[in-house]
Amino acid sequence: MDHDAFRALEPWCWRAPSAHNTQPWRLRYEPDAIRIGWDPAHTLPVGDPTGRDLRLSLGAFVETCLVVAADAGLRLEYVADHDEQHRWVGSLRPAPERYPTPFRTSDVWDRRTDRGTLTGAVDPETLTALEAVARPAGGAVRAVPDAGRLGTLLRTADRRQYADPAVVAELRQWLRLDPTHPGYHADGLTDRCLVLSRPAAVGLRAALAGYPVLRPLGLPRLLAAAGGDPLALGGTVLVLIAPDHLDPPGQVEFGRVLLRAWLTLHTAGLAAHPLSQLIDVPATRAALGALLDVAPQRLLHVTRVGRPTRPAPRSARRVAAGRA
Ligand SMILES: Cc1cc2nc3c(=O)[nH]c(=O)nc-3n(C[C@H](O)[C@H](O)[C@H](O)COP(=O)(O)O)c2cc1C
Question: InterPro entries, from UniProt (predicted)?
Answer without folding.
Answer: Nitroreductase-like (IPR000415)
